[in-house]
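Moderator note: this is an archived Q&A kept for reference. The question asked for a predicted structure of one protein chain; the sequence and the answer are reproduced below.
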Amino acid sequence: MVWNSLQKSRKDMVENQGHIKHHLIFWVHIGSFALYNAIIGYLLLQGEYQSKWGMLLYFIAMGIHFVTNDKGLRATHKEDYDRYGRWVLAVSITIGWIIAAFTEVNILVISVLSAFIAGGVILNVMKEELPEERESSFPAFFSGMLGYAILLLSL
């Protein structure tokens, strides 16, 4: 009886540690994507656009990118993402936009932030669209990449 209780206690402890680890990973993912989204929100207002059309194209490109990120995070974190994550990410974009409304930074910082976002877009698209264990297609990836590159270059 004591042995069964000890085994059950150990099993509960292992399950609890797994849950805590998953919860920690979730908040690391959400925290990093919140920062990423805040930078996108900041650049929406402070980015160097040639015209309002450039800003609109950036907005559309990032909107499409958010859908991909949303799908990936929801698949990975399910209930936690629906309960907390999506709200944190939505608010973070708004926070970035509000910061941009009240502050201005050097053009060099804008360039670094833009490069960071460009790299993040590439990384996230490759992470979500190229893994072999998912139903992915290289022709679909390539056509999407080409279309997205044309959209970004038209900015």
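Archived answer notes: The mean pLDDT is 79.
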